UniProtKB/TrEMBL annotation:
InterPro entries: Phosphatase_SCO2771. It comes from Planomonospora sphaerica. This is Phosphatase. It comes from the Bacteria. Gene3D superfamilies: Glycogen Phosphorylase B (3.40.50.2000). Pfam families: Phosphatase.
Length: 270
């Protein structure tokens, strides 16, 4: 397949990427504290909607179950007695998940007329990765969907209306001209309602955008920080195809090597 997407940096070796992830704290000793991680694991175990990202969870996800899963899937410290200070993301788990995500994306792009939806709740960090994936998908002939543009609502955690807005076919939540961080699944739920029976072949997203899509049965891949366990639980339950563990809000330029590795994995698999 001939690609027409914009050029991305040449990927280095796996060892180069691992070193970069640790140096920039995308993985390794990350900025997210152990206290914050454990608090969010308890919140998910208590089924706090803010931390569920639009997913419904099966029985058995206690606090210890969530911690055990996050140790396995993201590489956080498994010892429940470690309650404060630093926590970790295993860079090899990040790279493995990036490659698995690339394989899923490539599998969809091999189908003529693939329909893909891209969205992010982290415009100050992960937007750069999503923009690159949207460009790649367009270059492979996929249709980038933009449902519910300008749909607006007042959510439970803010006092004024926000709306769905797209930048180069990547959906975000707009608050009076500013793209904002959000965990809320409501915007994706509005997209799904508008699309009706014409759902996408794949959603590439994070936070509630990914959770709501996975809950609706749409093939979904996503990115999640170590303090956002919902997508990892969704993956364990078969609702999310792949969840990539990483710090989701470092400087955007630091994601370039990871993005290059992901794009290379997709293109090599086509």
């Amino acid at each position: 397949m001939t690609l027409h997407s914009e050029p991305t940096p040449n990927p280095g070796s796996r060892d180069d990427l691992r070193e970069h992830l640790v140096r920039t704290r995308i993985a390794g000793d990350v900025a997210t504290s152990r206290e914050n991680n454990l608090d969010h694991y308890r919140s998910l175990a208590n089924r706090d909607p803010h931390h569920m990202f639009g997913l419904t969870l099966g029985e058995g996800w206690s606090y210890r179950d969530v911690l055990d899963l996050m140790a396995k899937s993201a590489g956080v410290v498994a010892d429940p007695a470690h309650r404060e200070g630093l926590d970790t993301i295993d860079p090899d788990r990040t790279i493995d998940a990036v490659e698995a995500m690339g394989d899923v994306i490539a599998g969809v792009l091999r189908n003529a007329g693939a329909r893909i939806l891209v969205a992010t709740g982290h415009p100050t960090g992960l937007l750069t990765v999503h923009l690159a994936l949207a460009r790649l998908a367009r270059g492979c002939g996929a249709t980038l969907l933009t449902p519910a543009e300008d749909w607006s609502y007042t959510g439970p955690r803010f006092g004024r209306r926000r709306k769905i807005r797209y930048l180069d076919d990547v959906a975000m939540l707009d608050d009076r001209g500013a793209f904002v961080h959000t965990h809320d699944p409501a915007p994706m739920e509005a997209m799904i309602e508008e699309m009706g029976q014409e759902l996408p072949d794949l959603v590439i997203a994070d936070h509630g955008w990914a959770g709501a899509a996975g809950e609706a049965g749409i093939p979904t891949v996503g990115f999640a920080d170590s303090n956002d366990p919902a997508l990892f639980v969704g993956e364990a339950e078969g609702k999310i195809a792949v969840t990539v563990p990483l710090d989701d809000n470092v400087l955007p330029r630091h994601y370039a090597p990871l993005t290059a590795h992901l794009v290379a994995r997709v293109t090599s698999a086509l």
